[in-house]
Amino acid sequence: MLLFQYSPDFLRRLSYIHSLDLLFQTKYIHSPMICAEHLSKTFKVARRNSGLGEAVKSLFKKEYTLIRALDDVSFTIPDGEIVGYIGPNGAGKSSTIKILSGILVPDSGTCTVNGCIPWKQRQEYVKTIGVVFGQRTQLWWDVPVADSFDLLKNIYDVDDGLYRKNLTDLTELLDLGDLLTLPVRSLSLGQRMRCEIAASLLHNPDVLFLDEPTIGLDAVSKLAVRKFIKTINEEKKTTVLLTTHDMNDIEALARRIILIGKGHILMDTSFETFISRAGACSTDQCGADTSASGDKRLEELTASLYTSLGI
Fold first, then answer.
1. Distance in angstroms (rounded) separating the CA atoms of residues 75 and 282
2. What is the pLDDT of residue 26?
3. Each residue of 112-149: pLDDT tens digit?
4. Would residue 134 count as lying in a domain?
5. Residues 137, 140, 141, 144: is their CA dihedral positive or negative?
6. Are residues 290 and 250 in the same domain?
7. Would the pTM count as exceeding 0.70?
8. Residue-wise over 174-183: b if at least 16 C-beta within 10 A, else e?
9. Which residues, listed in sequence order, are joined to residue 84 by a DSSP beta bridge?
């Protein structure tokens, strides 16, 4: 039998190549799609009392209050996962979405989404994400929906063939056929929201940020939006971060929940564990109605947990 002896120099080179391979796997294969690390954000808000005198006084001397929207927020989300990001009003949900989408710059901390730092690589980055704000629109109010889509195609520099394919698929999945020729201002809230979601996906984003996408929608529209989000996640493996106050959206779509309150991450767990912990709050302790069922039961449990956590 021949025994091969490798030189020390060869072994060093082999070890170096192995190290590079591990680095590549860690950075490009095993790295999460979304990684937020110690994000903090404070807003300076002007305040004054009511009355003409106070209004005149504020012209010369303003009083400000500092509001800590985010305080050391950290979490990771792997590729292809749907995560529910929940919390009461003012908890910091929208501020987080705005930082992750590059609209806001944090005071401290950092984050990467699909390998980009949102506020530093903005032009490159926005082509990889889709964002829907339930109370804001990215569509042009007075022109047909199809014209808005064409404008977004040019903004995102989408290839003609890819645009036609995506538009056909989205029109079918979201039932937009009769809406494309109508001006946005003439659409109902549910119709507009379906068009908003389609607009955010025309350029095939890898990540979709949904900030209360079902707010104000009727039951039929909510079911249609939920079905579409689940379909796009299963077929294209799109990573979805969903903020909502409707726990039925979370139950239908997300297996994992991140709970934020007063700018702090309070829970990061499965939906089942979240409901189990919420159910542990007794009627005497948290005021939960244990006889309630369905939608009301979910709302009662969530409210009970918020109360127990002091948020």
1. 30
2. 40
3. 999 999 999 988 899 999 999 877 889 999 999 999 99
4. yes
5. negative
6. no
7. yes
8. bebeebbeee
9. 242, 257
